[in-house]
Automatic annotation (TrEMBL), chain A:
<dbReference type="InterPro" id="IPR036010">
    <property type="entry name" value="2Fe-2S_ferredoxin-like_sf"/>
</dbReference>
<dbReference type="InterPro" id="IPR009051">
    <property type="entry name" value="Helical_ferredxn"/>
</dbReference>
<keyword id="KW-0001">2Fe-2S</keyword>
<dbReference type="GO" id="GO:0022904">
    <property type="term" value="P:respiratory electron transport chain"/>
</dbReference>
<keyword id="KW-0411">Iron-sulfur</keyword>
<keyword id="KW-0479">Metal-binding</keyword>
<dbReference type="InterPro" id="IPR012675">
    <property type="entry name" value="Beta-grasp_dom_sf"/>
</dbReference>
<keyword id="KW-0816">Tricarboxylic acid cycle</keyword>
<feature type="compositionally biased region" description="Polar residues">
    <location>
        <begin position="1"/>
        <end position="15"/>
    </location>
</feature>
TrEMBL record, chain B:
<dbReference type="Pfam" id="PF01127">
    <property type="entry name" value="Sdh_cyt"/>
</dbReference>
<dbReference type="InterPro" id="IPR034804">
    <property type="entry name" value="SQR/QFR_C/D"/>
</dbReference>
<feature type="transmembrane region" description="Helical">
    <location>
        <begin position="71"/>
        <end position="89"/>
    </location>
</feature>
<keyword id="KW-0249">Electron transport</keyword>
<comment type="function">
    <text>Membrane-anchoring subunit of succinate dehydrogenase (SDH).</text>
</comment>
<dbReference type="GO" id="GO:0046872">
    <property type="term" value="F:metal ion binding"/>
</dbReference>
<keyword id="KW-0813">Transport</keyword>
<dbReference type="GO" id="GO:0016020">
    <property type="term" value="C:membrane"/>
</dbReference>
<dbReference type="GO" id="GO:0020037">
    <property type="term" value="F:heme binding"/>
</dbReference>
Length: 271, 153
């Protein structure tokens, strides 16, 4: 019994000393910076188009720890190296969806990407998300994205008398659209879509996901209207099922599946 | 910085050309057509390949007389006609979506699509004409240009 106690105390103290040693390493961060357009040549930045002349690359070498995320590295740059670096973040814990960016060529949330999970032998390339106009550094104009979102009517549509109690729903009915309720509107999916990159006219996966959330909600009565809106030349039929959106989603929403379900609902409605 | 509007507010019109609303079932029917014709084409093309290249004497049997013999029967005429039309509409629609995806300027789209539809029209009209008006032994043609079996008739 004594031996057991001794053993336990030995392991806990051992574990504590191990826990204290968070490994540190050198990280090179390669960040795309915004160059304001010259006064002589007025900006002709197209929505959805890359503007190679309007960017430069800055490299920062930092000492980071095993528990740090890309967002921590960006904070370190902004707070200790270059205060002019601009990026969005609010909650910093993967809930608000402010800090979606292109890290090593993939759309992710900077606050959910651990540095130790990336290839640290090469610089970590950080760019703004593609397909939306860059305002500064890693900040893009989200308005075209939210315009598509508003267009699909992301609110409950009902008719008749308001019930005096809450609108009831079975757990099966709730499960039908559970996956698409997880969306945080970070735009990682829409800006990973090659069809959206072309001309920015496509509604984009995020708008369709949020339409899906209401179309398959048993309490909602605006489904037909939403299907009508998405039955557009720039609606669900432009989806080429490349699955970029599903790969990009930081919430693990099966985005392409949701788009296919909206397509299927339209087809069963039409035939 | 852009002010984020109330979600229920009417949409602010976009700068630039904006999205032209094109509600209608055209894209839906085009999408369904691609799936249905794709399945049909699998059957049509593989039966075509097997009957031409595998059954009987195989590849070596294909010559002018073989094709003439096939188009003498209404069955293969209808088969080839269906295959021609489905493949051309399927392929043209696929090319149309690729042009929509990759051409950014309206003018580029117009030029590419005009060329595409012209090619479609030429192939379909010519192909249909050949399938229905094909005559292996036209009357009055010089005998040395005709296949040997024409003299037997």
């Amino acid at each position: 019994m004594t031996a057991t106690l001794e053993n336990t105390s030995a392991t806990t103290s051992g574990a504590r000393s191990e826990m204290g040693e968070v490994p540190s390493f050198q990280v090179t961060l390669r960040v795309q910076r915004y160059l304001p357009p010259d006064d002589a040549a007025p900006a002709e930045q197209e929505v959805g188009g890359d503007a190679p002349g309007d960017a430069r690359w800055d490299e920062f070498t930092l000492t980071m720890y095993g528990t740090d995320r890309v967002l921590d590295a960006l904070h370190k740059v902004k707070w200790e190296h270059d205060g002019s670096l601009t990026f969005r973040r609010s909650c910093a814990h993967g809930v608000c969806g402010s800090d979606a960016m292109r890290i090593n060529g993939r759309n992710r949330l900077a606050c959910k990407t651990l540095l130790k999970d990336l290839d640290l032998s090469k610089p970590i390339v950080v760019e703004p998300i593609k397909g939306l106009p860059v305002l500064k550094d890693l900040v893009v104009d989200m308005e075209p994205f939210f315009a598509s979102y508003r267009e699909i009517m992301p609110f409950l549509v009902t008719s008749g008398q308001e019930p005096t109690k809450e609108r009831l729903q079975s757990s099966e009915q709730r499960a039908r659209f559970d996956d698409t309720t997880k969306c945080i509107l970070c735009a990682a999916c829409t800006t990973s879509c090659p069809v959206f990159w072309t001309d920015g006219q496509y509604f984009g996966p995020a708008a369709i996901v949020n339409a899906h959330r209401f179309i398959f909600d048993s309490r909602d009565e605006g489904g037909a209207q939403r299907l009508e809106i998405l039955n557009d030349k720039e609606g669900v039929w432009r989806c080429r099922t490349t699955f970029n959106c599903t790969d990009a989603c930081p919430r693990g929403i099966e985005v392409t599946k949701a788009i296919q379900e909206v397509k299927r609902a339209m087809i069963t409605r039409a035939f | 910085m852009t002010v984020i509007a109330d979600p229920k507010a009417p949409r602010i019109p976009r700068s630039g050309p904006g999205r032209r609303s094109t509600r209608g079932n055209t894209e839906l029917y085009a999408w369904v057509f691609m799936r249905v014709s794709g399945v049909l084409l699998l059957v049509l093309i593989f039966a075509h390949l097997i009957s031409n290249l595998v059954v009987g004497e195989g590849v070596s049997q294909i010559d002018f007389a073989f094709v003439a013999g096939k188009w003498a029967t209404p069955f293969w005429q209808v088969w080839d006609l269906t295959m021609l039309w489905l493949a051309m509409i399927h392929g043209t629609n696929g090319m149309r979506t690729i042009i929509n995806d990759y051409a950014e300027k309206d003018r580029t789209r117009l030029v590419l699509k005009s060329a595409l539809y012209l090619a479609f029209a030429v192939v379909v009209v010519l192909g249909t004409l050949v399938i229905f008006t094909f005559d292996p032994c036209p009357v009055g043609a010089p005998a040395d240009l005709l296949p040997s079996f024409c003299s037997d008739i």
